[in-house]
Write a structure and sequence with these properties.
By secondary structure, the protein is an all-alpha fold. It has one domain. Helix content is 60%, strand content 0%. It is globular, with a radius of gyration of 14 Å.
């Protein structure tokens, strides 16, 4: 049985939740953007938590989510596990949100 993310378990104290979310946001920092708030990540936070969790929420198989993430990275010209690729993904998501209003 797969464990869910620690911050999703009931009964965890608030400061511990904040620490885990902040550590997750650290994955999105870069020299040009040294501070990233978890709340500002939006859909990228879901993907950063775990592709399997994202797949569960999207009602897709985890390999489908992994394949689509690879396709997104290829389309954006970078890997989504690197800071530059994450910045491109955030910009693309922000542009899409602005266009679809």
């Amino acid at each position: 049985m797969r464990r869910s993310a620690p911050w999703k378990q009931p009964g965890l104290p608030g400061p511990f939740d904040a620490l885990l979310l902040d550590r997750l946001a650290l994955r999105f920092t870069s020299p040009r953007e040294p501070v990233v708030r978890y709340a500002d990540l939006g859909a990228l936070a879901l993907l950063a938590e775990a592709p399997r969790d994202a797949a569960d929420l999207l009602h897709l198989h985890h390999s489908t989510v992994a394949r689509r993430l690879e396709q997104i990275g290829t389309s954006l010209g970078g890997c989504l596990t690197e800071p530059a690729g994450l910045v491109r993904a955030r910009l693309a998501l922000a542009a899409w949100r602005l266009l679809t209003g």
